[in-house]
Amino acid sequence: MKEENTVDLTQPLSTGPSAFIPSEVILDEVPGHDVMKEPLLKVSHTDHVTMVMGLHPAYLHCFLHTQNALLQPDGPLPLSWRHYIIIMATARHQCSYLVQKHSSAFLSAGGDDHWLRGLHFASPKIQRLQTLNKLLAHRPWLISQEHIKELVCPGAEPCWSLAELIQAVVLLSHGHSLSSFVLGCGILPEPHSSAEQHSQPHSPVAHISQGPIPAHRARTHHRELTEAVNEVQLLMEKMMMVQQQEEEFTQEEMVTRFERERTESLLEPAEVVCSALPDSVSHFVQDPDFIYQDFCPRGEQSPPTLRAQDYSWEDHGFSLMNRLYAEMAQLLEEKFQVVCALTYHTMAMHTDVDTSTLRKALWNYIHCIYGIRYDDYDYGDVNQLLERSLKVYIKTVACHPEKTTFRMYSSFWRQFHHSEKVHVNLLLMEARLQAALLYVLRAITRYMT
Amino acid sequence: MEKMTCVSPLSGKTMFCHLDAPANAISVCRDATQVVVAGRNIFKIYAMEETGFVERLNLRVGRKPSLNFSCADVMWHQSDENLLATAATNGAVVTWNLSRPCRNKQELLFTEHKRTVNKVCFHPSEAHMLLSGSQDGFMKCFDLRKKESVSTFSGQSESVRDVQFSMKDYFTFAASFENGNVQLWDIRRPDRYERMFTAHTGPVFCCDWHPDDRGWLATGGRDKMVKVWDMTTNRAKEIHCVQTIASVARVKWRPERRWHLATCSMMVDHNIYVWDVRRPFIPFATFEEHKDVATGVAWRHPHDPYVLLSGSKDSTLYQHMFRDASRPVDRANPEGLCFGLFGDLAFAAKESLMAGDAGRKPYPGGDRRYPIFFFKKPDVTEQFAQVSSALSVFEFEANGGDEGRGRMDWFVETARRYLLTGKPFAELCDHNAKVAKELNRPQVSTTWTMLRIMYSDPGNPATPANHNISKLGNIPLMISLKEMSSALNERNKENRVDNLHNLETNLNIDENEETEGSEGQAEYLFGDAELDDDDLYSMEHDNQTEEPEYILPQEAFPLRHEIVDHPSAPEPPAEKPESPQVSGGETEGSCLTPMESFSLISVSQLLFQPRLPPGFFSPVVRAALTHYAELGDVQMAVSALIVLGERIRKEVDELTQEHWYMSYIELLQRFELWNVSNEVIKLSTCSAITCLNQASTTLHINCSNCKRPMNNKGWICDRCHQCASVCAVCHHVVKGLFVWCQGCSHGGHLEHMREWLKHSNHCPAGCGHLCEYT
C-alpha cells in the first residue's frame, strides 16, 4: 500500500513536519485523501500534528472532531481557560511545541497575558488543578475520590463544578496524550515560530543534532536490512502462533506474567535523569520532580490493579462521562473505536495480515504500564510480540515522552513503514488517554457514590 | 428450609446481609429458598430464612483461587437444584455440582472463549443445555454431557453482552451486542441468525423475555433506555420505551404482572426501579436501599411478584419486599406548566381541580382561544394510583401580550389593517382603535381612542347641565359604581390583562346610564401599563366612601392567561366610545381636573376643553409613545406619529423619530409587508426616511438588439443606433410604461399588450412563447 519500501533511516530530516519522518512520506500521503484536504482547505496552514496524523485519515477525522469540540465555544469553561489547561498539561511533559501553540491560542481567545508568565499568575481556581494535573500526567492510579472531593466540595476556595471538572480532566488528559504523540513522532515546531524554537534544548531537532549519525552506519546498512526482514517474518510467525495457541494457564502464571511485564517495563528507560526544565515551560510546572514511577514498586503498599472488567470505558466510563459531558463521551467513544479498529492489513512489506493480536498487545501493554489489567488477556503475548526496543520506545513515549530520541524511534521495527510507526503512536496516545480517563472517572464515580 | 408453593405468597421482610466483596450477579434456586451470589472475589450460597440471610456454602475454595472463580455472571439451573453455571472474567465457563462430596464443587470447565464471558444461560426446560455469550463476539452452546461445546454462534459483530433463551420457543434465543444490535437465533442453526435488528445506540447490556407473553423481549442499553419489542411480527416492533436516568445494567420482568419490569443501573444511580411500561415517565416502585449500583436483580419466586432480591457493588445482598418500596408517584407533583416555543401555554392538573375551574368559567363555547382539554381516561386495569389529569393547552391565537412576545401574527395583521392617512383624524383613530380591539390589544386600542379624544374637536358637546346634575344624583350612581366595579372585577378575573386598560369595559355602563338619562362616570385611564391602580385611585381615596369597591382584587392578576373577549361587554359601544376619557396622567399630574367631578360625575371634554389647549397632552402622549417604543411595540409609536402628524411631531426629537421609523420599516420588511413599509416611508416626515424611497430606483437595461447595456437616457442605443424597447405590437418606441413577459422578455405598451393577449395566447413578437397577462 505504501510506496516507500526501503526507508532510509540513517538521515533524519530537519525540515518538514517531523524530525523522525521524512517529509516526502507525509506529503506524498496528503493529496490522496479527502479528509486531509478538508482541514487543509479550512486553514491555510495545517499544523504539523495534523499533517503527521494525515497518514491515517480515518483517525485524523475523529481526532479533529474531538479536538474541535474540546476547543469550541460551547462548554462550561471559558475558551482561554481551556487553552491554559492544555498548556499546563503539556508543560508537564515539556512539550514546548504544544505549549507554544496553545499559548498563542490562549492569547487570541482573550486570555490574560499575565497568566503566561507562570502558573501562580493564573486564577487560583486553575492553580488548584495542579495536583490533579501532576497525578494524571505521571501516576493516574493515585487519583482518589479525595482529590475530586477537594476540588468539587464547596469550601472557602473557588470550587469546581463537576461539569467543569470533567471538561478540565478531558483537556488535561488530552494534553498529556497529545504530548506523547508530538514527542513520540518528533513533531517539529511550525515554521513561523521556528526562530525561537530552534534554541529550545528540548526540541527534537536538538536531540538529533546531539547524536550525529556515525559514518559506519551506512556500511552496515545492508546487513541490517536483511536482519530486519527476518525480524518481520519472525514477528508474523509469532502472531500466528499466539492466535492459534490453545494452552491453559493457571491464574498464578497469568498474574506472574502480568507482573513480569510491569516490572520489566520499569527497568527499560535506563537513565531517569531529572534534567532542568527549559525556560519556556518551567514556569507552568510545579513540582517538576514528580515523574512517572513504576505502577507498583515492589514491596511497598501497592494500589490494587485496576481490573478492566470492573471499570471499563465501554460500560462505566462512558456512562459517567455521558452523564456529565455527553457530547465528549460520544466523540471519545468514536475515537477509541476507530483507533482500535484501525488496520490496513499490512505489515511492512506484507499485505493481508491480521494485525489484531499485535494491536491488542500494544494496547494492553500500555494499559499494563498504567496498571490496568485484563483478566482475559495472556500477557505472555506481549512478550512474544513486542521486541525489546519497541517496549523501550513505548514505555518512554507513554511515560517520559520528553526523553524520546530519534535513536529510539528508528531502532524498533526497522523494516516497517513510517505510517505504521505513527499508527503505533496513535494507539499509544489513545491507550494512554483511556487509561488516565478510567482512573479519574473511577475516582469521580467513587466521589459521587 | 421451608418449601414455598406458588399459591401462598412468600412471607418475609426487607432484609440484607453484608457480603465480603462486591457482587456481580445473583441467581435464585428453583424453590426460592437459596440464592447464589457471584463476583470477582465472592462465590457464595445463602439461604433465605424468615429473619435473614444465612450463609450456606462458600464455593470459592483453595488457597489462591484461580481466575475461574472470578465471576461475571452466575445462573442456577431452573430444574436441577444442584447445578450452577458461572461465567468467568478470563473467558472460562464453569459448571458446579453442589452434590459433589468434596469441598470443590467445580464440575466442568470450558475454556473455549478467548475473552471474558459476559453471560451464561441454562435452557429453561432442557437439562443439559447451557449457552454462553462472550466479549470475543461468540456464543457457544454446551452440552453438559459432553466436555465441549456442541455449537458456536458467531454474531459477526462486537461483543455479546447478554444471551437469553426464550421462555416459550424451545429453540430460540436472543443475544444482545455491544454495538446496539439484538439477534435472534435458532439453536439448531449455528450458521446464521434468524433475525437481527438495532435496538439501541451503544451497547445493549441486557435483555429479558417476557415470562408469559410469547415474543415480548425487553432490552436495556447504555443509551438509558429500556425497550420492549414485539418479536411476533415480521419486523421487531418497539411497543414500549422507558427512559431511565442512567445506563441500564439489568432488566427483569416482574412475575404475574404483565406490564411490569425491574431495572437497575450500570452507573451513578443506585436504585432499583420497577416500571409499568405503559407509564414510562415515573417508576411504579423504587427500592432505595443500596449504597452503590445494583449489579444483579432477581425475583425470588417465578410466581411471586412481591419479593425481589438484589446484589450490589456495595457488598450487600438485599431482599426487598414490595410493600416497603417507595412509590414515586405519590410524591410526584400532579401539576405541570410549560410554555411552548410560540408562547403557547400548557397546563396539566388534577382533574378535580380542572373541573372546578371549568365550571366557573363564563367563556362562551365558541371562542377560539378557549383552552383545549385533554383528559386521560383512567384505566381500571392499571395498578397505578388513580391519577387522572387534565391537560389544557392555551394557544395565543392573537397575541395579547403587549410586549410583542410570541407570535407576530398580530403585528402583520395590524400593519395591514391600520389606516394611517386618507381620512379625518378622528376616523383614523377610531378605525385603528377598532383594529387593535379586534386583535385583542385593548391597551393599544384604548390609546387610540384617547388620542382621538385628546386631539380632536369635541364631537358632541355635552351640556354643562349634565355636570351639575351629577352632583345631585349620588345614590343611583353609587349603585352604578358598584355594578361597574363588580363588572370590572369579573372581567379582570378572566382577562388578567394589565388591569387598567380594561377599564374601558365601563364604557358600556356609561352608555347604559346615558340612555337611562342619568350620568356616566368619569374614568381615569392612562395608557401606561406601569401605573398601578393605587396610583390611579389615589385621589379618590380622599373623597370616596365607596373606595373599597373600586380596588381590584389582587388575586385576579397572577393567573394571567390569555385575553378573552368578554361576552358580557358588548363590543360595539366599546368600539365607539361615547363617553369622554381623560388621561390618567392628568389626574395625577395636575389639579386642573375639577375636584368635584370625581368618578361620580360624567366628565365631558367640554368641561375642560376650552381650558386645555391640545398641546397640553403632548408630554403625556410623547411619554406614551416612548413607552410603547421601549416595550418593543414600535408599530404603535410610528403609527401614532403618522396619524397625529403635526400635532405631536415637534414634541419628539428628530433622531428618536427616525430611529422608530427605521425599526418599524425594518420589521415590516422582515415580514415582507412591502406595501405597508412603502406607505410608512412615504408618510414619514423625517427626511432621512423619505429619501429611502429614492434609493436604488435605477433600473439597468440592455439594448434589445445588441444586448449591451444602455448607458444613455434616451430610447436609442448608442451602440447599434437602433431604437431599443420597441413595442411588439405597434413597433413604436415605448415611452412610458413598458410591460414585458418574463418568459420570453418581449413586450411593449401596456395597453397594446393587454389588448393583444386578450385574444391571443401567443407572444405578439412571434417567438412562439405562450405569454400570460395577469
TrEMBL record, chain A:
Signal peptide region: none
Residue stretches in coiled coil: none
Catalytic activity: a hydroperoxide + L-cysteinyl-[protein] = S-hydroxy-L-cysteinyl-[protein] + an alcohol
GO terms, biological process: cellular response to L-leucine; cellular response to leucine starvation; negative regulation of TORC1 signaling; positive regulation of macroautophagy; regulation of response to reactive oxygen species
InterPro entries noted in UniProt: AhpD-like, Sestrin
GO annotation, cellular component aspect: cytoplasm; nucleus
GO-annotated molecular function: L-leucine binding; oxidoreductase activity, acting on peroxide as acceptor
Entry protein name: Sestrin 2
Source organism of the structure: Electrophorus electricus
Lineage, top ranks: Eukaryota, Metazoa, Chordata, Craniata, Vertebrata
Automatic annotation (TrEMBL), chain B:
Localization of this protein: Lysosome membrane
WD-type repeats, residues: 110-152, 197-239
Enzyme class: transferase
EC number: 2.3.2.27
Similarity field: Belongs to the WD repeat WDR24 family.
Protein's name according to its UniProt entry: GATOR2 complex protein WDR24
Region (Disordered) residue spans: 564-589
Function description: Catalytic component of the GATOR2 complex, a multiprotein complex that acts as an activator of the amino acid-sensing branch of the mTORC1 signaling pathway. The GATOR2 complex indirectly activates mTORC1 through the inhibition of the GATOR1 subcomplex. GATOR2 probably acts as an E3 ubiquitin-protein ligase toward GATOR1. In the presence of abundant amino acids, the GATOR2 complex mediates ubiquitination of the NPRL2 core component of the GATOR1 complex, leading to GATOR1 inactivation. In the absence of amino acids, GATOR2 is inhibited, activating the GATOR1 complex.
Keyword Metal-binding: yes
Tree of life domain: Eukaryota
Catalytic activity reported: S-ubiquitinyl-[E2 ubiquitin-conjugating enzyme]-L-cysteine + [acceptor protein]-L-lysine = [E2 ubiquitin-conjugating enzyme]-L-cysteine + N(6)-ubiquitinyl-[acceptor protein]-L-lysine
Molecular functions per Gene Ontology: ubiquitin protein ligase activity; zinc ion binding
Keyword Membrane applies: yes
GO cellular component, one term: GATOR2 complex
PANTHER family assigned: GATOR COMPLEX PROTEIN WDR24
Pathways involved: Protein modification; protein ubiquitination
InterPro entries in UniProt: WD40/YVTN_repeat-like_dom_sf, WD40_repeat_CS, WD40_repeat_dom_sf, WD40_rpt, WDR24
Alphabetically ordered keywords of this record: Autophagy, Lysosome, Membrane, Metal-binding, Repeat, Transferase, Ubl conjugation pathway, WD repeat, Zinc, Zinc-finger
Lineage: Eukaryota, Metazoa, Chordata, Craniata, Vertebrata
GO-annotated biological processes: autophagy; cellular response to amino acid starvation; positive regulation of macroautophagy; positive regulation of TORC1 signaling
Pfam family, one: WD40
